[in-house]
Design a protein that fits this description.
By secondary structure, this protein is of the alpha+beta class. Helix content is about 25%, strand content about 40%. Pfam families: Acetyltransf_CG.
Length: about 100
């Protein structure tokens, strides 16, 4: 099973493809230097397979590589960062 996370800037979201099928996404709103993540969804056919965690890791690594910061309003993303404090440095607040 191959997983690929890529940004779909036109739809303001990061998507995860599993064997070339769209398996989930995490949506954001650009706000200055930050991306406000508002919602994450994994197709029920792919739940329980680590797809959500792979989506979070791939998204956060890409955000880090681009030098951006995040506001995790999405409960799934917020919980992931709480369990993986190595991504806490990406979190900011809107001022």
């Amino acid at each position: 099973m191959s997983m690929l996370v890529e940004e779909n800037a036109a739809k303001h979201r990061y998507e995860i493809l599993v064997d070339d099928a769209l398996a989930g996404f995490t949506a954001y709103l650009p706000r200055g230097e930050a991306l406000v993540f508002t919602h994450t969804e994994v197709d029920p056919a792919f739940q329980g397979m680590g797809v959500g965690s792979a989506l979070m890791r791939g998204t956060l690594e890409q955000v880090r590589a681009q030098g951006q910061r995040i506001v995790p309003q999405c409960p799934f993303m917020a919980a992931f960062i709480k369990r993986h404090p190595e991504y806490a440095d990406l979190v900011t607040s809107l001022t």
